[in-house]
């Protein structure tokens, strides 16, 4: 029987996941389909039941259901449990639904694809303390990055993540700006720089360290104001598209046991977004 997958969210019309996964199915000669389904919050429980009944092999979960879907799943992967958020559901052979989170590991795969794996000892600064920052912090820790600092407008949210991590420190945006030359990897995880965002720079890059790696999780636009500033200072920059493609590739691998071609997909989507 043909396998099928989905992405559920609200809104969902602009998701690039269906095109990406269907292109991979084509490329790899896999007889499967991936469809977007618009699900409002109040329909979530019924939607999960329906996806299960109708035989979906798995699905992605996006805003606003990443946390609220958890009670409707049977099992959680360790990282998803720590993060308190799920973006990928796998229907296992026994029919049970297991939740994973591939957002943070997608970021780390993208970072390491761009700059290699030899920077784990560098001091990392994550700007922002929302859901995306949390996922990235836990994934970085899992992949062996040990020196993590979180800078956020609301410091208490940074402290919360650091406490859950059991290591690292939380500081203000002002302090991060002043101590910027201390950090070798800087990750912008706030909504600053989104095409429709009213604020574009969470902090000044005046004191950026020579040779720093600067990443942004925003991929539309591909070059955020933050990355443009970093580029002017000769930083090695990593845009948000790789994170998107790799979170999908890791999910794909959980579903089908094969890792799709991420390089080709990043090239294709870059052309689309430029
Ligand atoms: P996501 O799930 O995408 O991470 P989120 O949980 O809403 O989204 O988090 C948004 C992040 O952007 C937060 O770190 C937020 O800072 P606060 O925790 O202080 O709210 C940050 N952010 C949003 N607007 C901001 C602004 N104008 N200035 C600085 N930080 C901002």
Automatic annotation (TrEMBL):
Pathway: Metabolic intermediate biosynthesis; chorismate biosynthesis; chorismate from D-erythrose 4-phosphate and phosphoenolpyruvate: step 4/7. The keyword NADP applies. Shikimate binds at residues 15-17, 62, 87, 103, 219, 247. Residues 116-192 form the Quinate/shikimate 5-dehydrogenase/glutamyl-tRNA reductase domain. NADP(+) binds at residues 78, 128-132, 152-157, 217, 240. Its EC number is 1.1.1.25. Residues 240-269 form the SDH C-terminal domain. Keywords: Amino-acid biosynthesis, Aromatic amino acid biosynthesis, NADP, Oxidoreductase. Residues 7-89 form the Shikimate dehydrogenase substrate binding N-terminal domain. The active site is at 66 (proton acceptor). GO terms for cellular component: cytosol. It catalyses: shikimate + NADP(+) = 3-dehydroshikimate + NADPH + H(+). It comes from the Bacteria. One of its GO terms (molecular function) is shikimate 3-dehydrogenase (NADP+) activity. GO terms for biological process: amino acid biosynthetic process; aromatic amino acid family biosynthetic process; chorismate biosynthetic process; shikimate metabolic process. HAMAP family: Shikimate_DH_AroE. Homodimer. Involved in the biosynthesis of the chorismate, which leads to the biosynthesis of aromatic amino acids. Catalyzes the reversible NADPH linked reduction of 3-dehydroshikimate (DHSA) to yield shikimate (SA). Belongs to the shikimate dehydrogenase family. This is Shikimate dehydrogenase (NADP(+)). It comes from Lysinibacillus telephonicus.
């Amino acid at each position: 029987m043909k396998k099928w997958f989905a992405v559920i969210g609200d809104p969902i019309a602009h998701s690039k996941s269906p095109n990406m996964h269907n292109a991979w199915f084509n490329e790899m000669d896999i007889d499967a389909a991936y469809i977007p389904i618009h699900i409002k919050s109040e329909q979530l429980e019924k939607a999960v039941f329906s996806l299960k009944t109708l035989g979906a092999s798995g699905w992605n979960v996006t805003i606003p259901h990443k946390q609220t879907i958890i009670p409707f799943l049977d099992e959680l992967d360790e990282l998803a449990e720590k993060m308190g958020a799920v973006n990928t559901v796998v229907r296992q052979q026994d029919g049970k639904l297991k939740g994973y989170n591939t957002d943070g590991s997608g970021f780390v795969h993208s970072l390491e694809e761009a700059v290699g794996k030899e920077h784990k000892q560098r001091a990392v600064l994550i700007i922002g303390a929302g859901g995306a920052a949390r996922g990235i912090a836990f994934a970085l820790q899992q992949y062996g990055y040990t020196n993590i600092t979180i800078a956020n407008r609301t410091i208490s949210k940074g402290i919360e993540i650091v406490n859950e991590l059991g290591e690292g420190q939380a500081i203000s945006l002002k302090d991060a700006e002043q101590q910027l030359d201390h950090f070798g990897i800087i990750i912008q995880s706030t909504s600053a720089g989104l095409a429709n965002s009213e604020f574009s720079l969470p902090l000044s890059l005046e004191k950026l360290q020579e040779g720093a790696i600067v990443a942004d999780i925003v991929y539309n636009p591909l070059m955020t104001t933050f990355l443009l500033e970093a580029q002017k200072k000769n930083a090695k920059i990593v845009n948000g598209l790789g994170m998107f493609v790799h979170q999908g590739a890791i999910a794909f691998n959980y579903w089908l046991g094969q890792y799709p071609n991420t390089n080709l997909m990043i090239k294709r989507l870059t052309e689309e977004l430029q």
